[in-house]
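Form 7-S
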Amino acid sequence: MKTFITALCLLFCANEAFSMIDASAVERERTLRRDSILSLITGAAMPADSLLITDFGAKGDGVKDCKRAFDRAMRAAGKRGGAKIIVPEGVYLVKGPIHFVSNVCLDLKKGATVKFAPEPKYYLPVVETSWEGTFMRNYSPFIYGYGLHDVSIVGEGTIDGNASTTFATWKQKQKQGQARSREMNHNGTPVADRVFGEGWWLRPQLVQFYNCKNVTLQGVFITNAPFWCVHLLKSENIVCRGLRYDAKLVNNDGIDPECSRNILIEDIEFNNGDDNVAIKSGRDNDGWAAAAPSENIVIRNCRFKGLHAVVIGSEMSAGVRNVFVEDCTFGGYCKRGIYIKTNPDRGGFVNGLYVKNCEFDEVEDLFYTTSMYAGEGLDNDKFTRVGDIYVDGLRCRKVRSAGLVLQGTEAEPIRNVMFRNVEIGEVRNAVSFDNTVGVELIDCHIGGRAGVPSQAK
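Output:
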């Protein structure tokens, strides 16, 4: 009997040691890792010289086409080795994309609006880009930079995609082009042969920096995007600070880092028709071939409003790691707070998500992780490794559906998850965990706090 009791105690202690997560150690690790990442992020170096866009023929009357003026200013800045292009108060109609060069800052002064023409013909010829995680040649993003360094957009002015009458109507027409792009992805078709553009109805992004280093986006107001608002593709050392949105057209994601690293997103006022921040790393074969995870992303002091606040996936085949969401709150309704979505088509991994001190008012689901997104890939075996998720301080007044959801698979359970200090006032389905290993809830009150127990009378 003594031997049995000793063995039972040893087994209990071993299981306890295996299952218990040291919350204080997690907090130390989170702080050290976050601060180490922040030390690497500087954004763009600002050029000393300045150019005035009106000196290149631009007129802020909302009528004259200023496309050539922006092209001339970019060329002049390039010849100088860089410059700040100042756009004063006024409405500047631009019939076509603005293509950046290195060492340029576009400074939109208060009262200045860069308003793009809505006609698709102006955004040809096609350029190298990506669409829903598949690399291709497609319509140019309205503001575009490829292979550059030290580029920035700053100021109190507005970027208006003006896309409501054209691009915003295309989603119902995109199925054939979407299917063709995914087939080319899965077949390994060379990117040079993946030519889309006219007739394929795949919408361009409003702002895209592709394969760029040292990027700053600060202060400007963004509205009426043709597709995603800000797409950071295979780029690094990026600061997005103080941006403001009223972008409610179709698929108007706020910020989409994809295969990018060392990113600070802070003090953003989101108001989007889709995801606020959607972290991606390529779809299926293209993601695996890129082998470029999105990593080292700090999101802090933001106000969320739109579809989902922070999303990882579903195009995330190269993996996502080291994401920090801290001290954020809500500016309005969000369908979901934190949302991780993948399926057996994707592969890759999600590793190292830290959520600290975030608050929502009313949502449908508060924290939702699924490895079975959209029911796709159920016959495949490209399971995603999801784990090392730590939530400390997550509050919500009302959850209309599910509070905390973890949906792993038998082949790849979701591993090592800690929920600490989670406070949910009202909720219909508090907790739903499937195929998980090592999940802990510490000091959580879901559906309200229990009070003093009643006494028998």
